Amino acid sequence: MHLKSLTLRGFKSFASATTLEFEPGITCVVGPNGSGKSNVVDALAWVMGEQGAKSLRGGKMDDVIFAGTSGKAPLGRAEVILTIDNADGALNIDYSEVTISRTLFRSGGSEYAINGEPCRLLDVQELLSDSGIGREMHVIVGQGRLDNVLHATPEDRRGFIEEAAGVLKHRKRKEKALRKLEAMNANLTRLQDLTHELRRQLKPLGRQAEVARRAQVIQTDVRDSRLRLLADDLVILQAELDREEADEALLRTRRSELDGQLATARGREETVEQATTDDASALAQVNELHTRLTALRERYRGLINLAEDRARHLHEPDAAANGADPEQLEAQAQLALASAAQLSEECKQLQETLKNREELSAQAEQRHADALSQEQRRARALSQHREQAVRLQGARDSASSKIQARDAEIVRLTEQLGDATARIDELACKVDELGSATAESSSQPLDELAKRAEVAKAQREQAKANRDEAREAASQSSREAAGIDARLDALRMSLAEGGGSAALENAQLHALGVVSDNLRIEAGYETAIEAALQWSADADALAVADVASAVAALAHLRSSQAGRAYMVIADTPRSAPGGRANLPADARWAVDVIRPSDEVAASSVLNVVNELLAHVVVVPQVATFVDLLDQDSSLVLVSADGDILTRSAASGGNAAAGRLHIVAAVEQAESDQQRIRAAVESTAAALTSAEDAFRLANDADVRAKEEFAAARSSVADHNAAVALATSRLDGVRAEAQRAQKALEQAQTSRVADEAALQQAIERIEAHQALDPAATPEFREQFDVEALRAAVIEARQAETQARLAVRTAEERIAAYESRAKDLQATASAEREARAQALAAAAERRRQAKVATEVLAVADGAVNQLETAVAKSAARRHHLTNLAASRSQELATLRATIRELTDKIEKLTTDVHRDEIARAEQRLRVEQLETKSLEEYGVGPEELINEYGPQVMVPPSAIAAGDEVDPDAPAPEPYPFVRAEQEKRLRQAEKQMALLGRVNPLALEEFTAMEERHTFLNTQLEDLKRSRKDLLDIVAEVDERVQQVFAEAFADVQREFTGVFERLFPGGEGRLVLTEPNDLLNTGIEVEARPAGKKVKRLSLLSGGERSLTAVAFLVSLFKARPSPFYLMDEVEAALDDVNLGRLIGLMEELRGTSQLLIITHQKRTMEIADALYGVTMREGVTAVISQRMRELVTT
Fold it and tell me: Looking at domain 140-209+999-1121, which CATH architecture does it have?
């Protein structure tokens, strides 16, 4: 297995699609710093599943996408495709060539694919882990990886070895098992809690059925007392409603009187309000006139004051002018201009001096620059001569080193070729032996065992399905049986409650049984016959043999206070049978739907019933057959719903199910009970048979799986051994071929290296003959310091001249500015004096106008005083009139408010009474609705049957209560509300003491018991699964210890040898921190170079520590070879000697693995089978390639 190609598209600096073709052996990637060589390393790590952005030298994962340059736009995704040659089958996949691709979109989406098929990251990691390439990527030794190895903890070093040995997948398996175990523990605890809770709930369910029996009698008392209290509330509310309606008429009469008085007062109020409004309008006009006149008077007074002030001010004299003389200012300006002209002449002379000094300064600077340039050319020529000498000597030393390396390589390759030839012979013999063993393999084909396992599995699944169906059928039958048993018990308990009739039956006084128990009714007619018997006699009546038995029964009831009972006498003489009229098609005689039961006395009872129901006709609806009553007034019509209609009476409405219904239900339940019990026995037998069949099928399935697994494992092991031996033989043969080719190339290269050495020596001798100091330009000498001093002196003189010029220019500007300011001041003074003369004439004119305004304003003020006095008198009169009207209006409004309050009070009282009556009516309606909806009793029937005028019957005796035979029978008693409330509270308290009555308790108990059994089964399954997981963990620990011990021994052995080769005379070894705990032990590195006594890595030099880290990694590579390794500048810090030693190790690794090396070292490039050159232009990486054997051949 080896890497075949790597394609990068949009990954970091690889903007366009770039493909690198790899071959077995060593491939070097070279190029200048920053050109993108390490991006190849990042691409390989990324496509193989690297998830850390920092490991890829970025801050976040989308940093791997090409970010764009000044001339190229950024891309939206990065894609890397890695192609692996899997001809040796190292990867567990049925392809000789495997392609792994990874794509990242800038939006955050990521895709993986294997051979073009989408997959998960886990699939890529598991595929590579089988070939020794783990998630930690120990095969990629990037920049800084040596530092990680140096600073690694003992546990981290153990991780390196575990990954190389393939132990990490076992650890992942263990961790997965432990996570399952942790989740299973939580489920186990929950399941145990549920099982305990179900066990706790099972016992109370058994006691709930008994509670339902007593609840029936208590519920009857509750219903009766509630109905009587409801009837009493209804009577009281209706009486209160009648009283309140009588008071409504008085209130309405008083309100009519108050409404008349209020209308009169409001009429007078409107009249006064209109007069007040008119007066208010006139008063507003007078007020407005008075206000305007007063304001006008004040304005004229202000005008008089203003005119007086203006006249007084204008008659004051003007201030004298006090500014400077304009003629003097003009003279000063002329003197300033003369001084400026004189300075201008001096400035021209200074500018000429400045120009001369600038020319002298430029000449001095030019001479100094020429001297400096000549000195720099001389120094550059000497430096180039020395650099050329150093390069030529380096080329000579490099050629000499190459010859030494070629000699060592020829010796090594000769030894390697001999070793490979010996191994070829050995492996060929082994392959022949395994091939002969294949022919003698087991005679039982693997396909036959596979088919047998599939058949056994199918039979097991079918048996399991049959068992589950049988289990569900048995569970369903058990639930149905429990339900029908509970229903039958409840129905029989209902039949057992008979009051006095039951007492007579128990007394054995020639009783023939309850009438309804001796009859059987056709289906659909139970309600009609029940109603007919209740009308004619009583369905619950007790049948006795004769009149004497009836008399004795009455005496027994009275003496034992056993309650009341209705009896029919069996030997009652029957009337002569008469002809029965013909009935319509849907009508039937009642006696035709009745037959006797299986009881002994049923025939005698039937005779009495036939006599009682001789005139009863059963019809669908009584309203449809009213015409039958016109034909025969003795008929009794009974509908299927239980409504009864005769010529003189009728009965109907909703009623609870009677005894006949209960008897029919008991018979049906007994029939269902027998059927379900037979089904329970049948399903139980079927379940037992199904479970036995499943057990047998499961055992057969387990045996078939074990036989197939054992055979498949044996065949797989043998095939793996054959494939491994063949692969190793092919690998050794390829290694021998590569060694032979490399030996020939090394011998050819040595001849070329000798010629290069001779050429380098000749170049050195020719270079030494050249001496740049002998040229004429090197003989000319310059006094650079004297020239620099002349330059400084010239610059100082130039600066002084420039300063003098600037000073003269500034003085000239100052004189000119002063002259300009003086001229402007003189002009302004002349203009100010002219404006003062014009202002004096204008003041005299304004003073005359102010005197005239003052005279007119005095006359206007006198007239306004007279008008203001008249408007004030008119305003006083209107104000007094408005006050008198306001007082009258206030009196009227007080009267109106008083009447309004009385009317509102009456209205409120009427409204309140109406609301109260509405509430009373609503309460009455609510009581009537409650009676009808909750109890099925109308308001009239409620008052007639349960009103306070009706006597209260004694409470029934609950089944199971003890009865004193000597106590007198309770009699009905008058209604007293307090007693009925106490009776209701006692009944509700008894119901509360009974607790919740659950008629489905038995069914719930069965379901809960079945669930408890199921949970117990699941609990046992969980315990077995937990044990299996613990066994897996133990097996994984044992396997990890074994694999790690073997890997550590191999790495320790290789490290000792590699260290001795890198440090001749030194000693290095790996030590376990906890030898007795192979699962958790760390690994320490002890290194002692030759001539030193220290062993700790921290005490070694930087180069020695780096070389020790290299030794550790190479020992890993040799102990557990991977198909390829990628090294990024691992030899950058090594000197020439240590580099040669490391190159020797790389040559050895080439025999077993593919090496991809990123380097700047020429010696490393020389051992490469192929070179890739990486360059960068405008931020985009480009690649060129060269196969070295093609170059050598050329």
Answer: 3-Layer(aba) Sandwich (3.40)
Please check whether the two domains, 1-138+1130-1141+1156-1193 and 140-209+999-1121, share a CATH topology. yes
Q: What is the CATH number of domain 1-138+1130-1141+1156-1193?
A: 3.40.50.300
Boundaries of every domain in the chain? 1-138+1130-1141+1156-1193, 140-209+999-1121, 493-668
Q: How many residues does the chain have?
A: 1194
Yes or no: say if 546 and 569 are a contact pair by the CB < 8 Å rule.
yes
Q: How far is CA 445 from the centre of its chain?
A: 54
Q: What percent of the chain has pLDDT over 70?
A: 79
CB 104 within 8 A of CB 64: yes
Bridge-based pairing of strands 1124-1128 and 140-141 is parallel
Tokens 């058990």 found at: 478
Cα separation of 247 and 912, whole Å? 12
Q: Please indicate whether residue 722 or residue 462 has the higher confidence score (pLDDT).
A: 462
Structure tokens at 694: 């499943």
pLDDT tens readout for residues 91-130: 878 888 999 999 999 888 889 999 999 999 888 888 887 6
Burial grade of 269 (CB within 10 A; 0-12, 13-18, 19 or more):
middle
Q: Is 239 left (phi over 0), alpha (psi -120 to 50) or beta?
A: alpha
Separation CA 469–CA 466 (nearest Å)? 5
> Is the pTM value of this prediction over 0.70?
no
Measured over the CA atoms of residue 1141, residue 1145, residue 1148 and residue 1153, the dihedral's sign is negative
Average pLDDT in the 1023-1038 region? 80
Using CA atoms, how far apart are residues 870 and 877, in angstroms rounded to an integer?
A: 11
Give pLDDT tens digits for 1063-1105: 888 888 888 888 888 888 888 888 888 877 766 766 777 777 7
Q: Which residue has the higher pLDDT, 66 or 563?
A: 66
Task: Provide mean pLDDT across the span 32-46.
Answer: 88
Cα(820)–Cα(823) distance, integer angstroms? 5
Alpha-carbon distances of 235 from 238, 285, 305, 1051, rounded to whole Å: 5, 74, 98, 107
pLDDT at 1053 over 80: yes
**Please, what is the average pLDDT of the chain?**
76
Q: What are the C-alpha distances in Å from 287 to residues 294, 873, 886? A: 11, 11, 19
**Cα distance between residue 73 and residue 1162, in whole Å:** 36
